[in-house]
Amino acid sequence: MGCPKEFSLKGGMGAALLMNPDKAKEILSTLVQNLKIPVTCKIRVFQTVEDTLQLVEQLVSTGIAAIAIHGRTKQERPQHANRNYLIKAIAQTINIPVIANGGSKEIQQHSDIATFRQECGTSSVMIARTAEDYDNSPNNTKYCIQNMLKELQETPRGKKFLECQTLEQICEIWNLRQYCKEKHLEYNGKGILSRRQVSPNMFCPASKKLKMEDTIEMPYAFIRASFPADPDLPKSKLISWCNKNKKEKPKYQIINEDKLFRAIVYIDGKKYSSTYWEKNKKFAEQGAALVCIWSLGLIDTQTLIDTGSTLK
């Protein structure tokens, strides 16, 4: 009952339920009476402690196990101050755990979380925006930035942004490429998996994992925007190399598991493959060819780092 977005309010959902306590109580009572797991809810505050407490007491009467309170009204947004004092007043009054929310603006480091909890006098905190500094999907990042840019997408920078396919390319436009790379390496060092490490058998026993014996493998992703012209594509370069050196044309083997694809390219008695699982066969073949042309010296490691195909 905290979402203040227009679509929620018009649909009688989210923060709209703050103005319809009977409906909110009915929903919570139904859940509490029919579920075997604890039921919690989240609300936004009103302008006064008294009005907020009146609603909270009605919700608590349904038997919920805890309540999360965002310290802004439904009209307010992140730029407005969070009413920590109001959350604290509620926490000191009711007899179930209160979860403080809305403090992301003040949370810059881990110790700030404890400070926020203490200011609100709650049992715990709920964090969203501050917790979002992670290896986000390039598609989702691009979608969010597009919504922020709006008509600015028609500017030279906006058009350059629309051509991006990776986080590295997006970050470079705003001079954040080095930061992006450092974050990737930081997460890898902590064992946090990114899209690069995703594989359909990653949680299978070692005996069931794909065996790629005698294959030269590298973690190189094929990024179409890095090869604007068809003659620059890894497969095209590999064909040209074969013709120049009078070698047989390369042959590709596709491996398909759980709608993800890898390829092995056979050339001159050797096998090459990218460890990156692609979403289609064509990109999987280009990825294998990319490893091959790198091995042949047709593309260097620094270029792959610069274009985001690999981290290091």
Automatic annotation (TrEMBL):
A Gene Ontology biological process term: regulation of gene expression
Q: Which GO terms describe its cellular component?
A: cytoplasm
Pfam families per the record?
A: dsrm, Dus
**Molecular functions (GO terms):** tRNA binding; tRNA dihydrouridine synthase activity
Q: Which domain of life is it from?
A: Eukaryota
Q: Where is each DRBM domain found?
A: 234-297
User: By its UniProt entry, which SUPFAM superfamilies does this protein fall under?
Assistant: dsRNA-binding domain-like (SSF54768), FMN-linked oxidoreductases (SSF51395)
Name of protein: DRBM domain-containing protein
Q: Which organism is it from?
A: Oryctes borbonicus
